[in-house]
Here is the input.
Amino acid sequence: MNDKLTLSELQLVIKDSLYIALPELYWVIAEISEITENYAGHCYLELIEKNPDEKNVKARIKAIIWGNRYRFIKSFFENITGESLREGLKILVKTKVEYHEIYGLSLVISDIDPAFTIGDMAIKRQVVIKRLEQDGVFSMNKDLEFPAIPQKIAIISSKNAAGFSDFINQLTGNNFGYTFYTALFESAMQGEDTEQSVINALDMIATNSHLFDVVVIIRGGGSQSDLSWFDSYNIAYTVTQFPLPVISGIGHDKDMSVTDMVANKSLKTPTAVADYLIDCVAYAENSIIEMSSQIKDISRIIVEKNRSKIDTYKVKLIPVVRITISDIKNRLSGKIIKIANSGKNYIVRAGLVPTTQESKLVSIVKSYSSNKIIEMERRRQSLVTCTLNSLSRNSTRLEGLKNTLNFLNPENILKRGFTITSLNGMILRISDQLNTDDLIDTQFSDGSVRSRIIEKRGRKEEREKGRKED
Here is the structure.
């Protein structure tokens, strides 16, 4: 071909050739590499296709969605998927190939299929779940024993996140007045830095795990794309290996992220996480109070039972001791008489026993009798001493149990400065049970008073009033 063409003429040839060769609309699968919106409302994208290794780019092309079409596509796509169009998202687009003399080859997008993106995200999530299950770690954090009183809490969140503020306010402003010790390990909670930032925070907590009872990962609500960062395999795997129970409160109701699935506990919002921790401490307190009441009742039963036994043993032992002593005396007296009679009979039969021998024999008999009497008295004293010692020990034990019961006696508790406040006979535990103008009774150790509520302030108002007075 010898005809010479200008550059613009060549561009027109290319353009016409493309329109003739590719006149139709095509559905194309691609990943968004770059996306920007200009002041006129047009959306400019760079679409790529990656090799199976998900690293090297196999194909790349520019694309555009004109403003009048982009507003409809964006709204429809976000409503269906819960995702915004962003970098890294795989999409199925309906497009036409265009060639411009200045801007070159590009695709003009007229539609995006949200169903494809939803399926792709679900597939990626299932791949992560299956990999964790194959590694045998999916339920490792769930298998950790949750502490009965979780008060030392490591928090992974952004300090500027609304969810973090809600969590702290709910935790510190609880109606029971419980104290919680918290430490924030700040982390990005959305975007490409989320994965490494959260893992770094978990590693820091693991180094000081002896200082904490549990770990909470919290953030406020957001779009599905914001929350999809917690479908990361690396975050989920780190959670499964963590030495402390992990609670997730990532702030969404529709779906659970993979991080939610592997955490020890998963709750919908940061506020729900705070309520759960408060409920755990309240349950532990109620268990302790119930246990204390049971111990008190059992102690009272034991004391009464042993007191009855001691009284019974005392009544039974005294007659037995007396009978035993009397029996020993009678046996000794019989032996003395028998020995004396035997001696006399021997003397009478012998007829030749000198008077001195008789005196000696009488003396021996008396000595033997005296020794037996002394031995009998020693045994009697020993028996009495053992009986008194046993009674003393049981009396001391009863006194200790009595002192314990006195210490737990509500009257003595009142004497130590505590009071009991009631409304219509019902004991009050929190101020929320009262209203203005209610009549309340306050029980002291030496009497009671009746008062009328003229003003009601919560713990927060008390602190603000204190600061104003200062």
Notes: The chain has a mean pLDDT of 84. The chain has four domains: 7-112, 138-268, 296-408, 414-469.
